[in-house]
C-alpha cells in the first residue's frame, strides 16, 4: 500500500487580505474561494464562482517554527531512519516560497525549513548512540534549463568546470558533475547554504524586489555506516509562476519567466500523468526540473508540497492555479522504502562460500581423472622453497624445465622470475652509478674511510635506501653476495666519487640537522632590534613585490622555500619515472600487436595447409606458434605489472603535487603578511609600535590596521551578548552567517 503525497497551503500575511474571497474551514484543512459574478456579462452567466479545496493543512498567520513542525519535522525524522524525503514549495512570484524554505538570514527565529532541517539532523546525530553517521551537502540551481552548481566556488578540484548532466541509474537519478561536500557540524552545513544563496540568480520584479529566477534544490545526504542505511532529503525552492500579461515583464526577466512557466507547465503535466493509474509512460525527460524530480515524485520517497498563495483579491487567479496544483499532488501515491547500504561483509562471505564450492567441484573432477595430488589452497612454505630451488637450478642450466601441476604454482613461478629480473635491473643501475665493493674486504673499506673523511663536511646528499644495499657509512651500495671486490684498495682512489657525489650516512645527517636546529634556537634567543630602529631603517617607498619576494625567500621564508624546492624535485623525479614507465608500456603494447599479427599469420597458414589433431581430438601446433603464444602471455603479464606501477606513480604524483601546491600557497601567504607588516603599515601606526607598547606586528591583521572601525567579528560578539542568552542553539546559525558576510565583503573589496 502506497503513501499519498501530503500537501499544505501557506497564506502570505498581508494587510489587504480578501476575507470575502478566501475563507478557511473550521478544521484548518480546507480552503474556499468565492468570486462575485460579473454583472457586465448579463443574466445568463454559468461561469463557476466558488471552489473548495481539501488539503492536509492550511497555514495562515503561522510562525516559521510552527510551519516547520507541521510540514517537515516528521519527514526529517524518517529520513534519519533510511527513508528519502522531498519538500517542495510552489506558488506565484512573491508568495513567500523562498521565505518558507530558507527564511530570513538576518534573524534566527525567522530561519526557514532548510536551516531547521539541518539543525534537527545534527541534533539527532549528537543524541545517537553510534558515531558512524556521515552528512553531505549539495546545492543545485536550474536556471533557464541550465544546471548550475551553487557550491562550485568552494571547491578546488575543478568540478565547476565539468559538464553537468542528469543520469539515470538503478539506484535513482543523480546529477553528474554536481559537487557534494562533507560537513561535520551544523555550522559547516549552514556555511554552504548561505554561500550558495549568495550565488543564486535573483532579479527585481513588479511583485518582488528580490525575486528568485531559478529552481533550487538543496540536498542533505545522510549515511549510517553502523546499521548500513542511507537517505537524502531534497529541499526544493521552485521559481514563481506569473502571468506575463499582468506583470508586464520585459527583457531578461521576460526570457526567464518564459523558461520558468514552461518548466512548471511540464511539472503539472507530470503530476496529472502520475495521478492517472492507466498511464504507462511518464514523460520525466521533458525538462531538467522534471527529470531531477523523478525519484521525488514517482519514486520511493516521502513527498510534501507547500503551496504558497497571496491573500489579495488581485491575485485570485494565481491562487486558484496553485490550489489546483496542490490538489493534484495529493492524488499521487509513492512507496517509501528504507535504503539499505550495500553490505560488503555479507558479499565477502558469499564469495568465500562460492570459492569453497568451486574447490570441491575441482577436487571431484581431479579425482575422476586420477589427479588426486592437486591442491587449490595457499602454497605451503615447502612448496615455495621447492619452486625457488627449481628456478635456481633452471637458471644455472642444471634442469631443462620446471614442473608445476596447477595454475597457482605457475603464477608463483612467474612472480619469482619477475622479482629476479627487477633485482638484476636495480643492480645494473647501481653499478652504473656507484662503486661496489665487498663488505668483507676490510682493506678496501679502510682506504675508503680514510679518503672519505676529508669530504664529509662538504656534501650533504640524501642516502638512497634499498634492501640489497649495505651502506658501511660510506657508499650507497655494497653487494651482499659475491666474494670479489670490483676495486682494490690501490685502485680505489682513482674511482672514488667527487665531492658533489659523496654520500653522508644517516647518522651524520642527524647530527648536522641537530646542530642546525640548535643554531636556529640560539638565533631566536638573541634579543631582537628595537622596533623603532627597524622602522627607521625601512625605505621611504616600498620595493616592488618581485624584489621583496626574492629577499623574503632568502631571509624569513628560507625554510619554507627549501621545503618547497625539495618537494618539487621529488615531484619532477616521479614524473620522469612515470614517463619512462609509460614509454615502456607503449613498447610492450607494440610488441603484443606484432605477436598477435604473427599468430594470426601462423593460424591462417595452418588452416590453408590443414590442421592436425591427436588421438584425443586436441589441436597440434608447431613450436614456433607455441613460442609466440608463450611470449604473448609473458608480455601481457609484464604489461599488467607496468600498468600497476604506472597507477601507483600517478597516485604518488598527485600527492606530491598536493604538497607542492600547499608549500607554494604557504610561501605566498607568509610573504603577503611579511610584506604588509614590513612596508604597508602607516606612519602613525608605526609610532605606536614601541618597545614598551602592547602592539606588535602580526597582532592586528593588515586590513584592520588600515581600517579600524567595528568589524564583523565585533558585531557578532556584541550580538551574542544580546541574543544568545534566549537562544543558545543559534550559535552555529550566526557564525555561519558571519563567515558568509565576511567572504562577500572580501570578494567585493578584491573586485574594486
From TrEMBL:
* Coiled coil ranges: 582-652
Q: From which organism does this entry originate?
A: Phasianus colchicus (Common pheasant)
What does it do? Essential for normal male fertility and for progressive motility of spermatozoa.
Alphabetical UniProt keywords: ATP-binding, Cell projection, Cilium, Coiled coil, Cytoplasm, Cytoskeleton, Flagellum, Microtubule, Motor protein, Nucleotide-binding, Phosphoprotein
Instruction: List this protein's GO terms for biological process.
Output: microtubule-based movement
* Annotated compartments: Cytoplasm, Cytoskeleton, Flagellum axoneme
Q: What is its main location?
A: cytoplasm
UniProt xrefs under InterPro entries:
KIF6/9_C, Kinesin-like_fam, Kinesin_motor_CS, Kinesin_motor_dom, Kinesin_motor_dom_sf, P-loop_NTPase
Name by which UniProt lists this protein:
Kinesin-like protein
Region (Disordered): which ranges?
513-544
Family, per the entry?
Belongs to the TRAFAC class myosin-kinesin ATPase superfamily. Kinesin family.
- How would you summarize the oligomeric state and partners of this protein? Interacts with HYDIN.
